[in-house]
Each structure stands twice: as structure tokens, then as C-alpha cells.
Amino acid sequence: MANLNIRATEENSYDAIIIGSGVTGGWAAKELTEKGLKVLMLERGRKLDHVTDYENATKAPWEFEHAGLMTMEQKRTHPKLTRDGFYDATTDGYWMKDVDALYHEDKRFDWFRPNIVGGKSILWGRQSYRWSDFDFEANAKEGIAVDWPIRYKDIAPWYSYVEKHAGISGEKLGLPQLPDSEFLPPMEMFCVEKEVRKRIEKNFPGRTMTIGRVANLSEARKEQLGVGRAPCQYRNKCRLGCPYGAYFSSQSCTLPPAAATGLLTLRPDSIVAEILYDENKQRATGVRVVDSETLDEREYSAKIIFVCGSAMASAGILLNSTSNRFPNGLGNDSEQLGHNLMDHHFHVGANGKWEGDLDKYYYGRRANGIYIPRYRNIGKDKRDYVRGFGYQGGGRRGDWKHNVAELSFGATYKDAATKPGPWTMGLIAFGETLPYYENRMYLHKTDKDKWGLPLIVFDAEFKENEKKMRIDMANDAAEMLETSGLKNVKPYDTGSYPGMAIHEMGTARMGRDPKTSVLNAHNQIHAVPNVFMTDGACMTSSSCVNPSLTYMALTARAADHAVKELKKKNL
Amino acid sequence: MNRREAVQRISLLMGGVALSGPVVSGILGEKTHFGDSVYATPQQEKLLAELADVIIPTTDTPGAKAAGAEQFIIRVIRDCHPMEEQKEFYASLDTFEKDSKAAFGKGFVALTNDQKVSMVKKLIETDRNFFKRMKNYTAVGYFTSEIGATQALEYLETPGRLEACIPIKPGQKAWALG
């Protein structure tokens, strides 16, 4: 194997290495190259060129062999991903196969790992919300885990910075618990949603419902047109990749400006096995990479490293980066690495039927829903649990599927199926999960995958606080829908396992004290300041709102700090 | 290093145990064989087409047979169901044909339209699961076919704008795409 191991040479040297090309890796690449750094981006997934590689995005329904139904072969190769609905036949080629990319579960964990350049920035739900000081102050106020080392004022300008470039569509509300972004025009609500909003605001003081804040260009401005993006065409096929570049992905938004600098080298099929550490310099010096296709090994060196491989994979890389100085994983003096694993808990809410508006319809397919911001444990509201939840959801009018389960057939059935069906409306809650030290992922001592890397083992569960919250999550949804005039309202709780919401976080948390946290206020590893982690691993608590926008802002902020520190020769 | 060599290296990582043919082809991403699938006979294919066409007949737009829904059904039964369910599906179809012969002395394909409808009504009582599966796949196959999506429904690939709350037009068909 020695002949495969190419040592880092001059041509393998860069100013910065970025591990991962998703939401945060893309932002790191844009910021660092625009500030003049020579950057190597390593992505374990395959090449996925913007527009030309979005194979399924422009297919008509009759061009799919099985109309998107799951085949036995897909079930065989994705035994874990097929346990839940997010993986589907049309995005099959974007995900890793469970049968290759193995992991173990002490407790069930649904791990959604894309196998493409762009990572989850291609597949994400695009819901984009700012966190607030309700989130950043919660741990300190309640004496839970450790305090965030930053507050809203530290991140607010960086939210503005990333929002202007990414393009976030939404409505200003002026709520303290859900600060407004730099918005593009909001998308319109369906008639039923407009009415339900009025009734919720009237009957439940302190609650409101707004249109989802979403990283789709409801209008393309100079910042977006300049990188070759076009406004949303309302096709609602975002997950397949957008031929118009109308939603935020690395390919549409951050990689083009990075590539335009001429300073970015992107290597797909490159699995980072470990970060290399020099005990004399007390700095990371580079990475060891395994080629996912050939299994060749290679080393690259750089002055700084941005770890943006997604929360679980990034923590796995650090745990696998051992040395005399760090026998339990790079920067793991606190023994917190891999712990405090969080994900939102969901799959709970209510649905109902709306009998009105049969004379109303819509034009265009809105790739967005509604949002009900958190109202629990805010102001005078006090529950038997801490933190809170928000709702996504929305109204829809039935299509040809609306009467397929009936026993009708023939011309009457066909005629009814080809007409718009009834309106329905649903709410699905996303709840905050507390950071528990015992919720963790770790590396298996002996089992390895086909690339020779130790398997990650998951050992995390939702606990009492989350379980109590779920009762409100179902009941409140049903109460709001019923009070708003929906009929046949049914609350549901179909169960939620960590990983399922794909908002995994917390495995290398930020904090003020190196004894109790892995990263500092600028996402640097306390003891190895030239390594930055800005993906979900860095999160000290989980809030109840979608985290990607916060990862973007933290990444841009950390990149700015990194370059300033490099110039001061502090790294 | 080519892919086969890479696989050889994997076998070394797995302790030097020689991998069997099917395992190697699986790692290489080739389709591996999991026993036989049930293929429809030409008679069964015809029968499926006729049955689908009773569920979604030609009206002012072409029906399921014109859209080739039976090809979709055969494909989905073959690729998306375990062997046991495949056998069950075709056994139900054969029973349906036998019942037709018992009732009218003729196979389903040769029946008059009214006789076909009465057979399907009977099927709903005698083998509801089969009817439901058949109806579901007929509907999916039809409404995602070019004929179903563009003629029976209103097909619009690229709307270009959103109007979320507008009066419905007279005779408005449901949108083909969700």
C-alpha cells in the first residue's frame, strides 16, 4: 500500500482545505477564495455539475419507469433510508447506499447522507429562519448544558450578509422569537391558509401564521442574476436540482463565485479519513484522503482547515484524527466530541378537511408551505417542559389521487379524478431537543467500511422533555385547525427518531470554556485554532427552527475571522 | 487502479476472504439477481389491459389501454414487490379470468362492456385487495402517462409564476403535476 500513499508535496499544498461541499462548505469556499486564499475543497460524493447533471429535474412523469415508486432493488440497497419517506426513487442517485456506507445503531438513527457535490444543499427543504436570543440565551438561563459563546447581535450582520446573496423569500413580522431576514417578496398563501391565519390570530392571541421563509428566488435581484441565477419558475421539483438555479444550493449560489476567483480546486470522490496534526507546531497541517473509487490514499496540506462535512461525519473525522496529543480525537480535551447529539423531533401534528373554496384554485406549484412561529414558553406562557416548537404545513387541493382509495371505477371515477379534489390543511410540528451529554455518536473499535474507515455508532434518543412537548405539538395543531373551521380534524404522532428531521447537530459544540466545549466563539477548535467547524456539529442548542441559515451565517463569520487571523499570523 | 482492482483491495480489508461472484458484482454496482420474477403471459397482459380499461375507460379522452397502463402495472408488480406478492397478484388475476368463464362462458377480454362491469363489481366483493391494487396502479400508470397527464389532466411543466388564490375556471381540470 505504500506506493499508493502520496505524501503532501508542494503541489498538494493550499492556503485552506474545506472538507465538504454542502451548505457550509460552499459558503466557506466563496468567502475564503474571495478573500484571496487558494482553496482545496474535498467532497466524498460524486461530481454533480450544475444544471447538466440534474438528470431527473426535467423529466416528464412518463419518463420515470416506476412513476417514483420504490423498487425492491432500492429497498435492498437502502434498508435504513427506506424506513422513512425523505429518500425516494427520484432522488435515489443523490444518496449514499446503506449497503456501502455502513453505520451501527445502538439506538435507531436515520442518517441521510447525500453522495454528491453540493451535499444536502441540493436536497434540502430550503426553509430559512433566523435564530434569536430566546435560543442563544436558553442554556444559560435554564442552566442546561453550556452557554452559547455568542448572542444574536454577534450573528445578526452575518445573517444579513448571507441572506442578500442567497435570496430568502418571506414576510416581515417583527417577532422577537423569529427575527426578520433581508427578504425577497413573500410567496402567496392559498385562500384556505389566508382564512386560517385570520382565525388563528383572532382566537389565539400571541400566535400567528406566515408564509414559509424559503431560499427560493421569488424575485431575482442583481446579486443573484450576477451569478447566473433566475427567479423561481414554480415547478416544485427543487430536490432534483434546479435548472434555473432558483433556490440556494452550493452549485447555484456559492461555488460559481468561488470558481470565478480561479482559486478553487474541487475534488469529488475524496473521503477525508483524518486531519493531520503536528505536535511541535500545535497546529493541524493537512488531511489524509481516501479516493472513494480507487481507494488510493493521498495527503494534502494547508494553513487552515474548514470542517464542513455535516455534523455526524465531521465529528467522525475528528474522532478518527488521533495523535499523542489527542488520543481521543482532535481537539477532544473536553471529552465532548460526539456527545450532545441533537436533531429536531417531528412527525407530529394534525390534518383536517376544508369544505370551502371549491370555486378557488391556484396557478403554479409553490415549493413552500406556511410557518407558525414558536409561541410556547414565551412571555407569560409556561409549560411542563422547556423550549418550544414551530409548525410547518399548509393547505392543498386534491389532485387525481384524491379518490383513488375509493371503490369506484369507470367513467364516473375517471371524471371525478380529473377534477380538482377537496381542500385539506395540515400542520407538522418541529420541536427543540435538549443537548444531553449521553446522546452521542462514537467510532466502532473494530468494524470498518469498504474504505477502511471505522464505522460510526449512534446512541441517542428523545427524552422526557421532548415527549411532554409532543403532547402539545399534536393537541395545539388539532385545536388551531378545529377552531379555524376545518372538519374531520385528526391529530397524529407517528413517532420520530433522531436523524429523521435531518437537522442533526451538536457533536462538537461551541462554548466559552475549553474544558466543556470543543469550539470557541469563532468556531475554532479551542486547542487547534487553525481548524474551524461550522456545520451542525458546532451547535450548542438546537432551537426549534430550521438551522441551515444559521450555519451559513456562522460559516461566513468564521471565514472572515480566519482570514483576519491568518493576516495577523495568529494561525 | 481500475474498479475491479479496487474491489480486490476491499477483499483484503475484509481479511483476505475471497468474495463470491454475486457479492463482487454487487460492489461494482451491477444489478444482481435475486431469483425469478413473475412475467405476465401474453394472455395475462391482454387481460390486464382490458381490466385497466374498465377502471379508466375512454371517455372524451383516451382510457387506460390507450395509455399502455398494463405495461406500467407489469413493470411495477415485477420490480416493486417481493416474489410472494407477485405470485399472489397473478393468482388473483387468473381467478378473475376463471370466474369470468364460469359466469359467462367466456374469458374477460371477450365479454360485452356490461358483462365486464358486472365482473369488476363482483371482484370488489370477492377480492378487494386485488381490486384496490389494480385500481391504484391503473390510476398511477394512467395519470403519469403522457396521454393521462396531458389529455385527462392539465399539464404545465413550467408555470413561471404563482397565483395561489384565484377563481377556478369553468371546466378546469386538475393539475397533472403536484
UniProtKB/TrEMBL annotation, chain A:
Q: Name one GO molecular function term.
A: oxidoreductase activity, acting on CH-OH group of donors
Glucose-methanol-choline oxidoreductase C-terminal domain ranges (all copies) = 435-554
User: What cofactor requirement does the entry state?
Assistant: FAD
The Glucose-methanol-choline oxidoreductase N-terminal domain covers which part of the protein? 17-344
Keyword GTP-binding assigned to the entry: answer is no
Q: In this record, what's one Pfam family?
A: GMC_oxred_C
Any idea which UniProt keywords this protein has?
FAD, Flavoprotein, Oxidoreductase
**Protein family according to the UniProt entry:** Belongs to the GMC oxidoreductase family.
Name the chain's protein: Oxidoreductase
* Naturally occurring in which organism (per UniProt): Persicitalea jodogahamensis
